[in-house]
């Protein structure tokens, strides 16, 4: 065995411990995945991001030279294995999302199988993972109580395909953890931010901008996309494993969120309460219109029912874990409305 002089041995150790480790982000063309990739790239991290062949690289990531883009479908285990070469950390944000009833079963199968493939590869190669689940995978509690990480969704009674797919995907990660995977799970609430544009959560703000007349008698947790990414990166770089964390900044009623949005746009806020029977008519009408036009419904049954439910979340666990101070939601609303106004 060759022995190095002490000085050279010290230099060799320094080089080995300072070589940047490759990080993989799945779903980097999506709203949250793109923000995770942006923050990592901004810090100079060598980064590899997966995308579908038909996906477009987000504008906010197009200028970074330290991002390597690879085509890798989550169901293509060989492409995934190639993408994981040299990788030590994975942020798994990729997931299929659809409101179409016809997509329910394919979405469930795709999200579960894709996560299972990644879990198996990360377990085999000793790669640490932060998995993005959702509050959709967390159960309810009694009225007036905060929902915590200890509440679990009952898949036997759940009808929302997305919620089922996120719960079962999360179960794949827990299965991997039992087999030796080093992983942590995050369950973000409703993620908002200017880069959503008019898609996803951005639809709410664009709808208010166009003159929404009705509000619903429900509420939920909201969080800025930048804070979700910060939490994920902080958890990745911590020694924490085998835990799930609700990532939510504040609990808002839908009336208050639409009123604050209208105020930011300097327009009248919604003033009429959409009662439960009205929401039932709305989703049935949207279903009929969708059948006729062959386009996705403006609102489906699950979304209609969710809009009249109040689900408030406890964020004390993530605050205690990493000391995060969340951006005030009113500030996020202002930033979103300024972007949409342009």
TrEMBL record:
Family matches, as SUPFAM superfamilies: NAD(P)-binding Rossmann-fold domains
Domain NAD-dependent epimerase/dehydratase residues, every copy: 23-245
Pfam families from the UniProt entry: Epimerase
Protein name in UniProt: NAD-dependent epimerase/dehydratase family protein
Organism, scientific name: Mucilaginibacter antarcticus
